[in-house]
Amino acid sequence: MLALPNSASSPAGWRWTPVNTGSRSATSSPPSVPRVLPDIERWLRMCSPTCRSRRQAVGKDILTGLAGESGTGVRLATGIDVSNSDHDPPDWFALIPDVRRCAPDELPPGYRNGHHYTVPLIDMPTHLAYLARRLELAGGDITIGRVDSFGDASRLAPVIINCTGLGARALVDDREVFPIRGQHVVVRNPGLTDFVEVDTGDSLDLIAIYPHGDRVVFGGTADPHVWSRYPDPVATTKILERCSRVEPRLKDVEVLEVRVGLRPTRSAIRLTAELGPAGAVIVHNYGHGGAGVSLSWGCAASVAELVERGVSI
Ligand SMILES: Cc1cc2nc3c(=O)[nH]c(=O)nc-3n(C[C@H](O)[C@H](O)[C@H](O)COP(=O)(O)OP(=O)(O)OC[C@H]3O[C@@H](n4cnc5c(N)ncnc54)[C@H](O)[C@@H]3O)c2cc1C
């Protein structure tokens, strides 16, 4: 596994769902996704099945393709997204060919409606290791170290992609970036195959259950402006209680691990280019909140485009 220090990507980020991203029902408005939506809509358009450009393969399509290869950490998973409220289906359902309403016997006790569909589900430790291998096979080297200024970085490379997430607060003094803390519990899989996502309304206590092979990752929480990376035992107990009410097979399971991550959130994703020291091209790409995995390939395509085009400011 590629263990990145202080990263949101290592401990979390599981499911392709652009407006939901593992934190809310398909039909609600999540706190962990940047609130200013034009960027999100642009990345969504990039994933659209009707898109005819080279971006056709971006986003969901790429993850769907990776699900067919072994060792990528991506699989196509079926599951349900359930709610007690009546909402219009979100726009991104248009990207999912097999979405359908749940039959009553598919709903957990106490829930009135839901949808059943298939999306890429991503085991992040495996996926990050796959991405690192892929980069190395393409001729890249990975050196892990702290960058304190773009002056330092420009001595190493003429193009700098700034994907520092919350680190952008210090590196580029961007006070708009803030954490939304998330906590997940990892247990041995008692036999689950399908994901479950529950609409918890405005509550910061989320319910999402993701089976990943012999483990199940579930939670969670969404605490804005909380910086602690330490597991909160009270939150763990509550996660176990509310998730096992929805999926009784999670009752009394052995907890293997508790994971905490800070979603690097911003009112809008910053994806811009500028000229830096010594003529270096700097492309900023951070602030993806709870949607960074879903948006990763779409945003990467935009970054590549900015680098190819060069900076004109
Ligand atoms: C609990 C939880 C659940 C989530 N679920 C989903 C989901 O279901 N679907 C989804 O799409 N997304 C999900 N996300 C969000 C997703 O994980 C993030 O949006 C994504 O990982 C952000 O990636 P990033 O590379 O921008 O930031 P990070 O992964 O945080 O990476 C930033 C990296 O930059 C490094 N860095 C910072 N400053 C410096 C510096 N000065 N010098 C050198 N290095 C530096 C950091 O150490 C870190 O390694 C979830 C997040 C959490 C916490």
Structure summarized in a few sentences:
22% of the residues lie in helices and 28% in strands. With 313 residues, the protein is α+β, with helices and mostly antiparallel strands. Strands 1, 2, 3, 4, 5, 6, 7, 8, 9, 10 and 11 form an eleven-stranded mixed beta sheet that branches.
Q: What ions, cofactors and ligands are bound?
A: flavin-adenine dinucleotide
Proportion of strand residues: 25-35%
Q: Whole-number radius of gyration?
A: 19 Å
Q: Can you count the beta strands?
A: 11
GO biological process, one term: D-amino acid catabolic process
Domain FAD dependent oxidoreductase: 97-306
Organism: Pseudonocardia kunmingensis
Biased composition (Polar residues): 1-10, 18-30
Structural notes for this entry:
- The chain is of the alpha+beta class.
- It is globular, with a radius of gyration of 19 Å.
- Helices cover 22% and strands 28% of the residues.
- Mean pLDDT is 82; it is low at 18-57.
- Strands 1, 2, 3, 4, 5, 6, 7, 8, 9, 10 and 11 form an 11-stranded mixed β-sheet that branches.
- β7 (205-212) and β8 (215-221) form a beta hairpin.
- The chain binds flavin-adenine dinucleotide.
- Residues 4-9, 12-15, 21-22, 146-147, 163-165, 167, 171, 182, 184, 220, 261, 263-264, 286, 288-294 line the site of flavin-adenine dinucleotide.
